[in-house]
Design goal:
The complex is a heterodimer of chains A (167) and B (406). Chain A is α+β, with helices and mostly antiparallel strands and 167 residues long. Chain A contains four helices and five strands. With 406 residues, chain B is of the alpha+beta class. Chain B has two domains: 96 residues, 3-Layer(aba) Sandwich (Rossmann fold); 265 residues, TolB, C-terminal domain (Neuraminidase). The relative contact order of chain B is 0.11. The chains are: A alpha+beta (167), B alpha+beta (406).
């Protein structure tokens, strides 16, 4: 019980720290270096059901390294745009972070890895001030490749998170 | 050069385990590795279904790993009698003897269309009578087929015959596994839109969702007594290992590894431990936990170790070594690998291994040229001339086999 309280306090502190951080950050332009937000486990409340798909914004796929769920510096700006849309443009939209993997390796492990990728982005978005209940995660593992090829290029495009949103 | 060295090493490993081994699975090696000749030439046939029966019986007996089927009427064991297909009825009289003893003398009568199932039954009865060993000819394998982009569950006999489709909606099906009594299978499906865990009765084909927590619900695996299941859930924000009652209910969390993902649980035969995959050390490796959550990493060769299946003969797994995925068996008592199963000389990756109930055969996925099929391997004779046997021949991708318990 007290462990849970501590976790909540820690989450609030992290989230507040982030909001402050966001305010001091330039609204646009690429970020340099790794994200200083440490993704933590943010419990899920419920799955995000389908609704009317958001059409005025499409998040760019966030790409990952092989067997990794770390958010790369090159991908941070993409997540910032998603956060900005949810915080400023459409404050009621709900998001499913879809985690995907390339075709190599165990199917079941890839399901977990895809979930980890989606979870890392969700935690990052929560850290940026978006209510956890607006963000669900769904892992497809290696079941839904974006590129059906079997080379490095296809694999790099398939190790990704997608951002379907609903009104 | 490297290949040659690997082959030499494999032969050494096989010889050493046969000479120095003293535990139960090596006894299997000793009895099974030497094959007896058997002739079915004295079993006469009349009719198409009778011929199918004869052919299936011979294949089953060869595949058991205990016999070489003689092309002539000579052999250590002689199967004689008759098999007649008349009026849609298949009548079989089957006798088995060697030079001094009769092992089986039995008559069977079945519908002609079940010739293949009858052959499987008779093959298992012959193996039991002659070698005192429970066979696998009558068992079944559940698997996933991707046909035209639709991923569904399928079921086939242990020889790949009688392939039937268990689901039709193509809603992505993943990792089916049998219950220990063989009455049902547990699997992950996206039929709700999210990955949830279901149990299907294999006789009635009725299914029920048992876990639909927010996020990932996967890896369902029955405990040996069938009362509990191990599952992977991400409801607490990260994939973790849990156990719960097999009919659903409140999950109890076994791992507590923030920022680390767990996957692929499989229970020990005694039901007191679970082997699973975790990327605690960044790349996926195998860990064993007791039911209180005390865990340790298995020290294994390979940059990745995944998809474990724990049986009485050890933990069979997929291991990535020298850039290839292969099938390996880890002896938990000795604390080391006893066998390299997948033939490495054909460049096929071996994945998703599943023990047969004879603790000797293993079903797995083998992939080459971006195409997957299900094969069976003989843990005892692999590397001694017996090549993996391909089970799936239909159009499509076939993978994730799970062998029925009986």
């Amino acid at each position: 019980m007290s462990n849970k309280s501590w976790l909540k306090v820690a989450m609030v502190v992290l989230a507040c720290g982030c909001i402050v951080g966001c305010r001091t950050r330039a609204p646009k332009g690429p970020s340099e270096g790794t994200s200083n937000l440490t993704p933590i486990d943010v419990p899920l409340t419920e799955n995000i059901g389908d609704g009317v798909p958001v059409t005025d914004f499409k998040g760019e796929n966030v790409l990952f390294d092989y067997d990794s769920f770390q958010i790369k510096p090159s991908e941070v700006a993409k997540i910032e745009k998603v956060a900005e849309y949810l915080l400023k443009t459409n404050t009621r939209a709900r998001l499913i972070v879809e985690g995907h993997c390339d075709e190599r390796g165990s199917r079941e492990y890839n399901l977990s890895l895809g979930d980890q990728r989606a979870g890392a982005i969700r935690a990052d978005l929560v850290g940026r001030g978006i209510a956890p209940e607006r963000i669900g995660v769904k892992s497809y593992g290696k079941e839904k490749p974006a590129n059906l090829g079997h080379d490095e290029k296809a694999w790099s495009e398939n190790r990704r998170a997608e951002f379907p949103m609903f009104n | 050069m490297m290949r040659a060295l690997i082959s030499v090493w494999m032969v050494c490993v096989m010889s050493c385990s046969a000479v120095f081994g003293g535990n139960a699975n090596v006894v299997i090696v000793k009895t099974g590795a030497s094959k007896s000749s058997m002739s079915l030439a004295g079993l006469t046939t009349a009719g198409a279904n009778a011929a199918l029966f004869h052919k299936t019986l011979g294949n089953d007996l060869a595949r058991s790993g205990y016999f070489t089927i003689s092309p002539t009427a000579n052999g250590t064991y002689l199967v004689t009698g008759s098999c007649t297909d008349a009026g849609g009825k298949l009548s079989v009289r089957c006798q088995v003897r060697d030079g001094s003893k009769s092992y089986l003398d039995k008559t069977y009568s079945e519908e002609g269309k079940t010739a293949r199932r009858l052959a499987h039954k008779v093959a298992d009865e012959i193996l039991l009578a002659v070698k005192g060993v429970k066979g696998i000819a009558s068992t079944r394998i559940v698997l996933v087929g991707n046909v035209g982009g639709k991923k569904n569950l399928y079921l086939c006999d242990a020889d790949g015959g009688n392939l039937v489709q268990l689901t039709q909606d193509g809603a992505i099906y993943i990792s089916p596994r049998w219950s220990p009594d063989g009455s049902s299978i547990i699997y992950t499906s996206y039929r709700s839109g999210y990955p949830d865990i279901y149990v299907m009765n294999t006789a009635t084909h009725e299914w029920r969702r048992i876990a639909d927590f927010p996020g990932l619900n996967s890896g369902g695996s029955f405990s040996p007594d069938g009362k509990n299941v191990a599952v992977i859930l991400s409801k607490d924000g990260n994939p973790e290992l849990y156990t719960m009652r097999a009919n659903g209910g409140r999950p109890s969390r076994l791992t507590n590894t923030g920022r680390v993902a767990e996957a692929s649980p499989s229970w020990s035969p005694a039901g007191d431990q679970i082997v699973y995959v975790s990327n605690e050390a960044r790349l996926p490796q195998l860990y064993v936990t007791d039911l209180s959550g005390n865990r340790k990493r298995l020290s294994l060769p390979g940059t990745e170790n995944v998809a474990p299946d724990w049986g009485p003969a050890g933990i069979v797994r997929c291991s990535r070594q020298q850039g290839h995925y292969g099938i390996y068996v880890y002896d938990t008592a000795k604390g080391k690998d006893t066998n390299v199963i997948a033939a490495k000389d054909d460049n096929l990756d071996g994945e998703d291994p599943s023990w047969a109930p004879d603790d000797r055969h293993i079903a797995c996925t083998r992939t080459g040229g971006h195409h997957s099929d299900v094969y069976i391997l003989d843990y005892v004779t692999e590397g001694q001339g017996d090549a993996p046997v391909r089970l799936t021949t239909a159009k499509g991708e076939w993978y994730s086999p799970s062998w029925s318990p009986k």
